[in-house]
Amino acid sequence: MNRTPILFLNVLVIATCGLVYELLAGTLASYVLGDSVTQFSVIIGIYLSALGAGAWLSRFLDRELARRFVDVELGVAVLGGASAPLLFLSFAHLSFFHVVLYGVVFLIGVLVGLEIPLLMRILKDHLDFKELVARVLAFDYAGALIASLLFPIFLVPKLGLVRTSLLFGILNAAVGLWATWLMRPLIGGSVTRLRAQGCVVVALLLVAFVKADAITSLAEDGMFADDIVYSKTTAYQRIVITRNRAGFQLFLNGNLQFSSADEYRYHEALVHPVMMLSGEGGRVVRRVLVLGGGDGLALREILKYPSVESVTLVDLDPGMTQLSHRFPPLARLNRDSFDDPRVRVVNQDAMIWLETDAPPFDAAIVDFPDPNTFALGKLYTTRFYKMLKQRLAPGAAVSVQSTSPLFARNSYWCIVRTLEAAGFQVRPYYTAVPSFGVWGFALARREPFDIPARAPSVELKFLNDQSLAAMFTLSADLGPVPVEINRLDNQSLVRYYEAEWKRYE
Hints:
four-stranded antiparallel beta sheet; alpha/beta; 3 domains; Growth Hormone, Chain: A; Spermidine Synthase, Chain: A, domain 2; Rossmann fold; seven-stranded mixed beta sheet
């Protein structure tokens, strides 16, 4: 039997599993630590250097190569398969998480780096050198492509991080176990111990796969101060809702988005100034655009205006826009806003959607998560704001959530100056939200404008004439600072954001 083609399939599996473990570590680190740009960059660098270290160490293995290959494969299965649950639990319970994170990535890289040189040496008697290198590299890169496609499209949204890790650990262990038959003539001696080890590893990982939800809950119970009442991993993010005596809190990738106890302060500040400015001078606000805001709380405030005939909400993640139907307390909080016939939901990247043709809007609310990744940072660039400007009717205004002018002052003023560079007249403002602290917004329009003088005559809990005027009066420690403009080719806002919020970790 010619085992060579089957051994090359092992290269494909090894490459696929190795990259999946790297992607898991990078994604999990960005979930729990934020700072995703730095985390992914460091993890990629550590993993690639570890591959080199593993390849170098392979030179010291001279005997029983097939047996050593099986040992290494089972080692990758145990460490790689357990990597996601291990890192989740480490973050929740250990103060030196970074050491564990980078150590796990390095050890996996070393083991994966050992595997392919061992296989090449096993195969060297069956092919000439040129053919051997060409095929190994071809299967290696093909495996990387498979992993990079499967990971975001199927694995994370369907299985979650923990089950993905365990599944590929099982796959590695199965390859190691299969190799005890495939390479039996090359192993020599008894293979009973190797097969018993392989069976034990597969069995343990299968049990962990079945109990993955319990493992995730155990880890997240240590990460969040309050009881978790809802959690889901979507194709784009990890959604967790916790509850305490004051109400419930929504977290995306570990970052607090709102608390039901005080979210009204944020959403009244975000929505009503722009609605008043857009309706100034006798203009009627009929068509409103919401970018982000998948929780429906900005919708609740917009729908208080009887003149509004339609609201288009563009949010990338259907897991967020459908959350109200899966978690009834949120539906009660947003007053079933997604069931209002005036609301149209579009699950699409906002930047791509802005390129589509649609009638102009009378007002726009931009309620994206904070710019802690390049994917989010692009939604705060001059390019994005210029595209948005083209979708606005004459006299229409825009409000933009703009992170904290106190804790992230450079980030805040970067957003303001980027709006100005895109051709908007901008008035910065802020309010205090107890769950967040001091939080900033930007009110913008193409034409010069004065801030609204009176609060609107709709149901309000926080906003009145006095608080409205106070929001636009910035104290000295919130004032302008020199910053770069955020453009697609520099993403300076993401760099500001990461540097500033890192101080409070």
